[in-house]
Write a structure and sequence with these properties.
44% of the residues lie in helices and 23% in strands. The protein has 359 residues and is an alpha/beta fold. It has a domain at 122-299: Up-down Bundle (Glutathione S-transferase Yfyf (Class Pi), Chain A, domain 2), CATH 1.20.1050.90. The radius of gyration is 22 Å and the shape is globular. The model has no long low-confidence stretch (mean pLDDT 91).
């Protein structure tokens, strides 16, 4: 699968832009602020129906205009696929595949598998657990539509239970029977999500460790662990035991919406004890593992976006990364960089077809 043509109208910094891409390597080079990342984000938008960097649609419309349109022409399994994502202020976003509008955006997720590696990924280390849960859910959802639907249903029930807890306090009342209905639903759906996350990480972690070993040349010991209270007790048990606390807090304090991933290096949190280079290598390994997992599960080679990937990586780590890209297992690749000469030198080492776009 590869993206052949991209057309933008009023998207972020671009009033109008069209690009025809190589099916192998595409390099977007230029000074900071010229729109390299915006082009990568538009490609991401076509795959996921939203921006990677700013999911608020109105903020992706070019200043002074009322709408944006992103159009992409792909080739997948020998077939031509045209995806159009459009948004007008005051209206709902629309995603079309070959002229047909999706009724639900979730139906499109996973059709165009894609992985992005960006400096913004540092949020996975420095931000809270919600960011890391979104990473897990995003990877699983690309190959398991049932998981995404169960997650949507879980979050809906969770919102209803939280609203009920607030209602109890506001009206000085309480009903165990009413609350138990939501507890049963959260237990049912949450247990499915937990088990799928657990099985996913059992398969994902070895791939991640392998990728990090290649990038770091096996010089560092790192760990990735799944942290969930459901490993010890059923969700129904947790919800029942937490009821007094939930009544005081007025929200649901336990459940799969509190799960997390622990990132460690030499037994210590990488957030505090990892260097910038180690943290970035950790994130790159995480995303490359995502790439290989999705490829194996979907049977389609994902598009890989590398946004400003060479920033803060030493020469040895860059070399290790390029050795991975040289492998036949990679498909279409997009790279953004501020140094044209450096980028071209690196991609020439792959001995593969490439196109250089200077913005």
């Amino acid at each position: 699968m590869h993206l052949k043509h991209l057309s933008l109208v009023n998207y972020k910094s671009f009033e109008s832009k069209t690009l025809d891409f190589s099916p192998v390597i595409n390099c977007l080079v230029g000074e900071n602020g010229v729109g390299k990342t915006n082009i990568l984000d538009a490609i991401y938008h076509l795959s996921f129906g939203k921006s990677y960097f700013n999911p608020v649609s109105t903020q992706n419309v070019k200043h002074g205009t009322e709408f944006f349109v992103i159009e992409g022409e792909f080739e997948k399994e020998g077939k031509h696929e045209k995806i159009v994502c459009s948004f007008k202020k005051g209206a709902k976003k629309i995603i079309k595949r070959n002229g047909k509008v999706y009724e639900r955006f979730s139906e499109h997720i996973g059709f165009l598998p894609l992985v992005i590696i960006s400096p913004a990924d540092r949020d996975l280390i420095v931000e809270g657990s919600e960011t890391r849960r979104k990473f897990i859910d995003g990877v699983i959802s690309q190959s398991d539509k049932g998981y995404l639907q169960t997650l949507i249903e879980y979050n809906k029930v969770l919102a209803q239970r939280n609203a009920l807890l607030k209602y109890f306090v506001a009206n000085n009342t309480f009903s165990t029977d009413t609350l138990s209905i939501y507890n049963d639903q959260l237990h049912e759906k949450g247990s499915v999500i937990y088990n799928k996350r657990r099985l996913f990480l059992e398969a994902f972690i070895p791939i991640f460790l392998e990728q990090y070993a290649i990038i770091s040349n096996k010089e560092e010991h790192i760990e990735l662990r799944y942290d969930s209270k459901l490993a010890e007790h059923s969700l129904l048990h947790l919800l029942t035991n937490a009821i007094d606390r939930d009544r005081v807090l007025q929200y649901t304090s336990v459940g799969i919406h509190k799960d997390d991933l622990d990132f460690a290096i030499s037994g210590h949190p990488i957030k505090k004890f990892g260097s910038q280079g180690q943290q970035k290598s950790f994130l790159i390994a995480l995303k490359l593992a995502q790439f290989h997992f999705i490829k194996e599960q979907s049977g389609t080679t994902p598009i890989l976006l590398l946004d400003d990937i060479f920033d803060k990586l030493d020469e040895k780590r860059v070399s290790q990364l390029i050795s991975l890209v040289e492998q036949d297992s990679f498909g279409q690749l997009f790279i953004s960089d501020t140094h044209p000469a450096r980028t071209e030198k690196v991609v020439k080492q792959t001995h593969q077809e490439y196109k250089l776009f200077t913005l």
